[in-house]
Design a protein that fits this description.
Layout: E1 28-31, E2 53-56, E3 61-63, H1 78-81, E4 88-91, E5 98-103, E6 111-118, E7 126-134, E8 141-146, E9 154-161, E10 164-165, E11 169-172, E12 182-187, H2 198-204, E13 211-214, H3 226-235, H4 248-258, H5 262-270, E14 273-275, E15 286-287, E16 290-291, H6 296-299, H7 302-316, E17 330-334, E18 338-342, H8 356-360, H9 374-386, E19 391-395, E20 404-406, H10 407-411, H11 415-426, H12 434-441, E21 444-446, H13 456-468, E22 472-477, E23 483-489, E24 495-501, H14 510-513, H15 519-529, E25 533-537, E26 542-548, E27 552-560, E28 570-579, E29 588-589
Helix pairs in contact: 2-5, 4-7, 11-12, 11-15
Bound molecules: fe (ii) ion.
Length: 594
């Protein structure tokens, strides 16, 4: 995605504009300064400070030095030398089944592995077992759909190659019937080279998540800018291949590299995943028939590249792959409490992107414009109609709620422009100057047109589905790298539900995109400029844990102190809550922002 306002006159669809750290070297300076870091960076050892010192925006520092070892890339790592070094994972849990996953390293030919599932970690109370073939043709990864399980039950699982054992994973089936509580962790945008996966570490150390929703940008295919290379080297998180991915081998190598990370493996080992891709698992700004990040004239077949990326995704993710690997939209029922509908807003049905001028000319309002595609949209309507669960939850990629800002701010995202608009807004109509009246009356435009703001008719149709069946809608979103919470209303003003948009695991947010705008001012301004946006954090990395009960939904944001140093602390909160029922679909803050 391209998350951010383009500079005036810059082409929106320019290739490779979106990077996990933003474009170019914005906000990043390399210096030989030896100033001691403060605040979040005070954990650096003094010896490291004499080395080249990289400043990433305000208040975050990296040190390039020998004390941070350069990690070996996937194929040459310690992880790769161990028979099951990439660990184990589980995913796509249902009430009676779950996928379990592993990879058998360094195979030269297919081998049979044994898998075991038990009720206890010592495997004395075995439930089921079998064999599965690990084949280099599938990157030596295996997936087993373990069936015949009991609902709401924790299981332990492992694999064996002869006498060699994998580590033991823990998973849990979905509940059935009357359910009192479900808690989901929501994650997106994990760029391995530019930050430590502390977010995954924090989540994997808690025992209360029923599932981890991976909403995409689980990897980044786009290669590294010079600045990102420097950060990766400083962190010992360089990748191979360093450039943009195109072939099946490229994509597989990057999955290997990402899974050398112990924190990522820890989350996969401890919590069942439910994942969908965003664009960067395949190529930046992908849509149904192409991608902003793919030029067929110089990069070959789009379909071949997409097929390679999709194959690698399913090889490495514990998904229940169907007959059509491109179709990843699917539902998960947590008894009578919630139905989770995982969507694909990127690949299978998205129409061509739009940008500023066509948007202002009304192109985005075309009622035939699709984000889900007709087939997926009909499927979702049927699922919402057919589910009697209290909460209807959409797990999907891009921000759903309106983020429409004044055109003057879109064109000049500066504190001066924002202050001018807000001053006009705060002035009583009778006292406004002509210029202020013009500011208040000017058109608005979605801050990021690759999200649902670029597809308003499609969004309205989803809201109408929920309204027609009087369902409590909760939308969970990723992609933006920042934390947001929305009240969701249709154009008639009906309260339909709420949205929690998760911050990124490592990818930089608006603090890098708009380095000249104060961080708190930026977040506060968004909330003031955008109707129904109730919360924003535009500078911190983290995740959101969402708790559902029969009467309420609560989104609790968790932020880590830094992804640029090896240790971290976590800040839990704020939490925002809404109630079930038409009168309760409005967020209130349970605790102040930390
Ligand atoms: Fe991202």
């Amino acid at each position: 995605m391209l998350w951010g306002v383009p500079a005036r006159g810059r082409k929106m669809q320019e290739k490779k504009m979106d990077r996990p750290m933003g474009n170019g070297n914005a906000g990043i300076t390399a210096t030989t300064a030896v100033d001691p870091p403060t605040g979040a960076d005070a954990g650096f050892a003094g010896a490291e400070l004499s080395r080249r010192h990289f400043v990433l925006g305000a208040g975050s520092a990296l040190v390039l030095g020998s004390t941070v070892g350069l990690g070996a890339c996937g194929g040459g790592s310690d992880v790769d030398r161990q028979p099951f070094g990439y660990g184990v994972a589980s995913g796509d849990p249902l009430a009676d089944r779950v996928i379990i996953w592993t990879r058998a390293n360094r195979l030269t030919e297919a081998v049979q592995l044994r898998w075991e599932v038990a009720l206890d970690a010592s495997f004395s109370n075995m439930v089921t077992s079998g064999t599965v073939t690990a084949d280099p043709a599938h990157d030596s990864t295996v997936k087993v759909d373990v069936t015949g399980l009991q609902p709401a039950t924790s299981y332990f699982y492992r694999f064996k190659n002869g006498s060699v054992l994998s580590e033991t994973g823990r998973t849990r089936t979905l509940p059935a019937g009357s359910v009192e509580q479900v808690k989901l962790g929501v994650f997106s945008c994990a760029a391995y080279p530019i930050g430590q996966f502390h977010v995954y570490n924090h989540a994997s150390n808690r025992s209360d998540l029923d599932a981890a929703l991976m909403l995409g940008d689980y990897i980044y295919e786009s290669g590294l800018s010079d600045a990102e290379q420097l950060v990766a080297r400083a962190l010992g998180r360089e990748v191979d291949p360093q450039g943009e991915l195109h072939t099946l081998t490229d994509y597989r190598l990057l999955y290997q590299r990402y899974h050398t990370d112990a924190d990522l493996r820890g989350l996969r080992r401890n919590v069942p995943l439910i994942g969908v891709w965003d664009d960067h698992e395949i190529v930046n700004d992908i849509w149904r028939d192409g991608a902003g990040g793919h030029d067929p004239a110089t990069e070959g077949s789009f379909a071949a590249r997409r097929a390679a990326a999709v194959q690698a995704y399913h090889e490495w993710m514990p998904t229940r792959t169907g007959a059509d690997p491109l179709r990843i939209y699917r539902s998960f029922d947590f008894g009578n409490l919630l139905s989770l509908h995982m969507l694909d807003t990127r690949v299978i049905g998205r129409d061509a992107p739009t940008n500023r001028d066509p948007y202002l000319a009304g192109l985005a309002d075309d009622p035939s414009r699709q984000l889900l595609g007709t087939e997926q949209e009909a499927w979702l309507a049927a699922r919402l109609q057919g589910s009697g669960a209290t909460w209807q939850v959409l797990g999907q990629q891009v921000v759903f709620g309106g983020m429409r800002i004044p055109l003057s701010v879109y064109d000049d995202f500066s504190e001066d422009a924002i202050n001018a608009f807000l001053a006009a807004l705060d002035t009583p109509d009778a006292s406004r100057t002509a210029a202020q009246r013009a500011l208040v009356a000017q058109p608005r435009i979605g801050y990021e047109l690759t999200n649902w703001d670029g597809f308003p008719a499609a969004r309205e149709r989803v809201l109408a589905m929920a309204h027609a069946t009087d369902k409590n809608l909760v939308v969970l979103s990723g992609d933006s790298h920042n934390a947001w919470a929305h009240d969701l209303r249709d154009t008639a003003g009906h309260r339909i539900g709420v949205e929690f948009a998760t911050p990124s695991v490592t990818s930089t947010g608006l603090e890098i995109k708009h380095p000249d705008v104060g961080r708190q001012f930026l977040a506060d301004s968004f909330v003031r400029m955008v109707p129904d946006l109730t919360y924003a954090d535009t500078a911190r990395r983290g995740y959101v844990a969402v708790t559902f009960t029969p009467t309420s939904v609560t989104g609790e944001f968790v932020f880590v102190s830094s992804v640029f140093v090896n240790s971290y602390s976590a800040t839990v909160g704020p939490a925002l809550q809404a109630q079930a029922g038409p009168a309760g679909r409005e967020l209130t803050r349970l605790q102040p922002s930390a």
